[in-house]
Task: structure prediction
Amino acid sequence: MLRHDEILAAFLLALAGRRGQELFFSESKRLCIEIDPNRAVRSKMHTAVGVAGRTYTGRTLSFAYQDGYCRDALDDLLEQCCRVVGTEQTSDPFAMESQGTELVEVCDLEDGQVQEVANSLFEEGKKAALDIRRVYFQGQVDSYCLANNYGLRGNGYSALYSWGFEYSSSRDNDSFAYYTLHPRNTFDLHTMITEAKTAAIMADAPTLVFRDVPVVFTRSATAVLLFSLMSLMTSEALWKKHTFLRGLKEPIIVSEKVTVIENSRQNLYHRGGVDGEGSPKKEITIIERGIVRTVLSDLLTGQSVGLESTGSSYRHSFRDMPRVRGTKIAMSAGDDTEGQLLSKYPDLAVISNLMGLAACLDPTSSRFQVAADAYLYRLGHIQGKSRILINSSLIDIFRNVIDIGSERGYGADGSLYVPSIVVYPISIMCI
Result:
């Protein structure tokens, strides 16, 4: 990883004497490794480095970028920004003084002991009667730093590691996939094998028809639901009228068990003092015990709808303009483990995969219809499975949360740290 302090020093030198300009640097490293039972290893490394500039002149905001980093090319990039036809913007998005944010030290990609971990997975899989066919590892670190001509400087980075494997159980030849996400290259081998074995048992369960039961959305499913809800609760969505919200004057109420915090210290996915626009990242309560207090906001669109930035500006890379998106969201946890939740209720339907929800989501009402595999549990023991259709809305899902698990995990793109939730009532139908 390139040194951010040296890059920022070059940025401030290039910006000296200019007005209404900003420089942004990003570096992304992604390593993918695949190991088969013969211990043959295939790996691929992808890197992307570049610099972007933004210029505000009068009422116009323009943007340009260049691949790679060369300090001697910064002046040319800033001049290129001035020549690009920009978009109308009513106020200077860089008019903020430096917050005195300390730079964070960016950790490089952790890729050690991959072969040793894969060997352990193959061996432990045999003991658990799982035929592991391939082990996958992916590590990704994205870092950035930025400065503007008002003296602001800051940086940040996010890290995400994923372990997974393809396997089948000894009872049949059906193939399954398991994966886990974490902001550090750590894992719990016992938990991975146990959960994979449970998934194989669930797949062997008989088909049943059931209705009108509480639904447990596992941590991965809860992350999809909350990610989708948060994408509609932004200043950008308000500005574009691409949301069910009609402003924040009328109170929005969900279950009192739900508290959601942006830039949470409990979420370790992202580290840094500023967001993608340079606004300070500090804890902001979005939903407090069921009451929506604010929405995710940046400077650019927040000013247009009368909201202050929540430090939620995000850039996928140097090639992209800032967008509003949470990067350190955490949802409050409950008191019971997931296993205790399954034993707590007479009947529960468990859903862990909500693939396709975003494609069928109506942003103006938050309503959706999505098909999913559900598994019926009775007092902690699996009874059967069914393919169901969920016909609900995101706001109703979180309004009807009756219980929350104590264990949390990372889901969606890794930026959410969430527990399992129990929802009732909920409209489901076996198909």
Summary: The two ends are 51 Å apart (CA to CA). Residues 189-203 form the longest helix (15 residues). Residues 205-431 form one domain. The chain has two domains: 4-182, 205-431.
